[in-house]
Amino acid sequence: MNEKERFSENLKRALIANGYEPKAVILEREFNLRYYGKGLSLHGVAKWLRGEAIPSLDKLRALSTWLKVDLTELVYDSTLRKLEENEKRKTPAKYYWESAASFQEQAVFEVYLSLPPAQRKIVREVIIAFHKARIK
Q1: Where does the HTH cro/C1-type domain start and stop, copy by copy (predicted)?
Q2: CB 3.0–4.6 Å: which of 20, 43, 75, 83 could bond 15 by disulfide?
Q3: Which residues contact 88 (CB under 8 A, 6 or more apart)?
Q4: 19 and 86: one domain?
């Protein structure tokens, strides 16, 4: 069994253990409610379930938190190390907002993170809509 297939089996096991059917439509909906980045497509999560792809580290972390499993229960240690190395190369630009944000903006973000997943999704969509309107 290769690492993608192992991830797929572990993901299915974690979904079932948390009361979810291991179906792409369910995984897509529930994951997107809890993930702060760009939402995933049905096709993307289906590739996870078929053992064709392993998500990026931020998505693995979201899965790990949501499904209450350790990252190493989803992927091999070696895979995790590779993903962490890739993230380290991207880190300076990724966390720029933390140093650029004012105290008030950081406080708003903390409140946002305390909201239930469905409300966070609505707030995220409103912010993205404002951004899209501004760049037109």
Answers
A1: 39-74
A2: 20
A3: none
A4: yes
Domain of residue 45: give its range.
3-90
- Report pTM: 0.66
CA-based diameter of the chain, in Å? 49
Of the chain, the end-to-end C-alpha distance in Å amounts to 48
C-alpha distances in angstroms, 43 versus 46, 97, 111, 118? 5, 30, 32, 22
Give yes or no: residues 107 and 56 share one domain.
Answer: no
In this structure, are residues 7 and 83 in contact, taking their beta carbons and an 8 Å threshold? Answer: no
- Residues with Cβ within 8 Å of 40's Cβ and at least 6 positions away in sequence, in order, are 28, 31, 32, 59
Judgement on whether residues 63 and 122 belong to the same structural domain of the protein: no
Q: Is the pLDDT of residue 68 over 90?
A: yes
Assess whether 8 and 71 both reside in one domain: yes
The DSSP code for 50 is: T
According to the model, what pLDDT value does residue 99 have?
60
